[in-house]
Hints:
Layout: E1 3-4, H1 39-59, H2 79-84, E2 92-93, H3 101-106, H4 123-134
Antiparallel strand pairs: 1-2
Helix pairs in contact: 1-4
Amino acid sequence: MLLLGIGTMLLEPHGCMAQAPAELPTVDRTSADPAQVDIGFVKRTELFEREVRPLLVEHCYACHASNTEASGGLLLDSRSGLANGGDSGPAIDLDHPEQSLLLQAVAYRDPHLQMPPEGKLSDRQIEILSQWIRDGAVDPRDGPVTTKATGGM
């Protein structure tokens, strides 16, 4: 099972066994040949920039950003934080996107894992995150992705 941890949610520890997260896809900024551009990747990048990042900023960064105490050990303001996840384990499961802890938390599926604490996201916002994860959770932010052997949300 391919598990990818992310880091922008405050989640209660679930005692999940964390596996080493996979590396996030990166943007190749060296290709000067337009024929070499992966249009699907570009569209997934646009989804992140237009829909996902603003949603994370508005609803998650107050508790899950590098300038905070990183509730639950989860940082969502960097590719590295996204890849590592937090204390509850990997936040994203690319093999089974709907089982991702991130989606369980924002959809309030588990009474012990509900984020953001001020209220459930709208169905549209949950679908945006779900689509993003189904599409591979592309995160074009710069910086190396570092992974750890254990960790998660």
